[in-house]
Amino acid sequence: MDHAHGAHGAHDMGGAVSSLDTVGAVFFIGWAVAMWLAVVVLALANRGPVRPGLYKIAVAVIGLGVIGQVGHFQEHVAQVGYWVAHPYSPAWMTPWATGLARGMGQVDPTKPSLGMEILHLTGNFIFLAGLVGIAQITRRAAGDLRSRKWARMGVWMQTIHGLEHVVLTLSVALGASRAIGLSTWFGLIEPGPALVTYRVWWHFVANLIGTAILAVALYHLWKERRAVTAGYKAPVPGESETAEATAAAAPALDAPEESAVCETALAGRS
């Protein structure tokens, strides 16, 4: 691989693509697609009547998002750790991430860093789906939930970060000599230690902040779980009708009492 093409690249991206690399790449992309299909289902179904099953779908989306981000963030931690030990070396990725990038890079073998860009793009969209899951699961809950506020904050931040990865991936896919985006200063930083340092730390800090927001959102979601689950409880058949009948009958039941009080008052005056 030409390390000038991407500061996230591994030392050995030019090896033969194994069947495990291909299966892993397909699985990882399928994971992201499945999560976003679930997000669309949640967004549309939550507009209608209560369906208790939606709660389980939202929990699954959040769980998969958390698992994905734990793996994603540890990759950036490992890259920073490698940079600390080797600040003048090309950027590095863990062996499992390198294998996934090789598998994804099969879409266009003429662009060595494309697989790595697709990998990070996919990881960021899995993270974003998890944050959207928190926003969706709190949608029916009454009150001003802190978990909802933090989730929305995370969604906005991660959307911006995700768009950065979209730009980086598209620039490479469209034939740019190097990835173009904020994390490469729009391609103006020359390949070498400066570019590696800037990009490795830029993405680490962005993911550190995003992961912290996710952790706070999950903390508040756990504290507010009763309010959240209450919003997904299906109404008991006949319960609403009984409540309406009681409310309608209340004035009629009170009327005789009120008239009796009025008659007593008038009799006292006379």
Walk me through the structure.
- By secondary structure, the protein is mainly alpha-helical.
- The protein is built from eight helices and no strands.
- The N and C termini lie far apart (106 Å).
Mean pLDDT: 85
- Backbone shape: elongated
User: How far apart, in Å, are the first and last alpha carbons?
Assistant: 106 Å
Number of helices: 8
Q: What is the helix/strand order?
A: HHHHHHHH
What's the gyration radius in Å? 28 Å
Strand coverage percent: under 5%
Helix content: over 70%
- Structural class determined from secondary elements: mainly alpha
What is the number of E strands? Answer: 0
Short structural summary:
The protein has about 270 residues and is an all-alpha fold. It has helices at about 20-45, 55-85, 95-105, 115-135, 145-175, 195-225, 225-230, 240-270. It is elongated and about 60 Å long.
List keywords for this structure.
270 residues; mainly alpha; elongated; disordered N terminus
Topology at a glance:
Blueprint: H1 19-45, H2 53-85, H3 95-104, H4 114-137, H5 146-173, H6 193-223, H7 225-230, H8 239-269
Helix pairs in contact: 1-2, 1-3, 1-4, 2-4, 2-6, 3-4, 4-5, 5-6
